[in-house]
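In this supplementary section we document a worked example of the pipeline. Step one takes a protein sequence of length 123 as its only input; no multiple sequence alignment statistics are reported here. Step two produces a three-dimensional model, which step three serialises into structure tokens for compact storage. The input and output of this example are shown verbatim.
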Amino acid sequence: MSSEKSKRSHFLEPIFKLLRVSQWAGPANANQKLLNAGLVVVLMISYVAWVLHGESLIRDTDRTRREISELNAELAFEKSKLMQESRQSRIVQKVTPMGLRDYRNEQPPVKVVLPTKKPVQPE
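The serialised model returned by step three reads:
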């Protein structure tokens, strides 16, 4: 565990030296204070930008969700309209002016009965 800790400190050590983190609590020269203040400002600006970007993503997601629900409603309407138009009675009404007619209604359906053969019983 101590090796992991030393690796972490080894990794962050150059950053701490650059920012002189050890001097933040104590006296520091004016350039270091200016650098630290600039770093804080950059971090604040990046945080605000990140939050605004997240809010815009939420707005885009909500807008897309609304559009999808509208498209689903339109799809259901068009499906019902298509089903109504594809009923046999509506089709017959539309093709009658063209000279076509429905022959299925002229004769009632006929039930086809196949004669069944009785099995031969052994005597």
